[in-house]
């Protein structure tokens, strides 16, 4: 069985609002579902971000039960329900983007990442994206073309007016791998330099090989931070197939400490640009 995709931000927000309404009335899930005559698990699914978005009648029934009477509040919740059901651009690429990560990344206010093996997707050129997808040995050429198209669309995130802050540390080993492929090296490394120099919201650092062992020896790590208190911050651990998502505050804090340690040991942005420039000219 394929792992269940993580809930979108819209679904997470609606789930949080449903829990908050119930708790404000001092009701348990069991009490609420019995009052509505619902089957066991239905409300749990709605509150537990399991992709179960209530229909209009169910949401109205919940608001009535919880005595939500203000018209503006009811309209806001109905609007939030619509947002939870919206199909954003990346759903057109479900055949090649089967993880759900991009939907969360798109709404983050800050993205912090460490990449030990490859250049992160947000910073890849089209040729590098195709080569890295091809190297997985699991994709057809048609799928690779769609992966590249999706990745290029995804990168618009960094140039929109309200672009998130992106702090990225790339292991020098990943850059050496790029430099060893002449057909890719110049364009990809130049692209990284340009982003580091021009993008106001991007901080790009390189972790030198001579640092040795470090806090992110476990591998690729991303932390997504969200502005709203109702949107829990997320740790995303990339795997060959479906990634792993961690949301407990203690887990997020643990991985944030590891990422901060790696960033502290990495070269400054200026020194990282110098290293990249030297790789281009070597």
From TrEMBL:
InterPro entries: Cro/C1-type_HTH (IPR001387), DUF5753 (IPR043917), Lambda_DNA-bd_dom_sf (IPR010982)
Species whose genome carries this gene: Streptomonospora nanhaiensis
Name of the protein: Helix-turn-helix transcriptional regulator
Pfam family, one: DUF5753
Domain HTH cro/C1-type: 18-73
């Amino acid at each position: 069985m394929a792992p269940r995709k993580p809930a979108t931000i819209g679904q997470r927000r609606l789930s949080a609002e449903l829990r908050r309404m119930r708790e404000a009335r001092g009701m348990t899930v069991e009490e609420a579902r019995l009052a509505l005559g619902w089957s066991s698990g239905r409300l749990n699914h709605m509150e537990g971000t399991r992709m179960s978005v209530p229909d209009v009648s169910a949401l109205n029934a919940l608001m009535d039960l919880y005595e939500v009477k203000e018209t503006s509040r009811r309209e806001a919740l109905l609007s939030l329900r619509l947002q939870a059901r919206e199909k954003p651009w990346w759903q057109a690429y479900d055949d090649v983007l089967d993880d759900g990560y991009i939907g969360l990344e798109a709404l983050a206010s800050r993205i912090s990442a460490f990449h030990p093996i490859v250049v992160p997707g947000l910073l890849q050129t089209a040729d590098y994206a195709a080569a890295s997808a091809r190297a997985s040995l699991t994709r057809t050429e048609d799928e690779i073309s769609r992966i590249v198209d999706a990745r290029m669309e995804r990168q618009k995130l960094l140039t929109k007016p309200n672009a998130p802050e992106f702090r990225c540390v790339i292991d020098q080993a990943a850059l050496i791998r790029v430099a060893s492929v002449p057909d890719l090296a110049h364009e990809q490394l130049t692209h990284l330099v340009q982003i580091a120099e021009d993008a106001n919201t991007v901080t790009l650092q390189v972790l030198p090989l001579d640092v040795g062992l470090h806090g992110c020896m476990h591998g690729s790590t991303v932390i997504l931070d969200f502005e709203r208190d109702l949107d829990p911050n997320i740790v995303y651990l990339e795997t060959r197939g479906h990634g792993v998502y961690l949301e407990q505050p203690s887990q997020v804090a643990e991985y944030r400490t590891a990422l901060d340690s790696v960033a502290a040991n990495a070269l400054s942005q200026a020194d990282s640009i110098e290293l990249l420039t030297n790789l281009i000219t070597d």
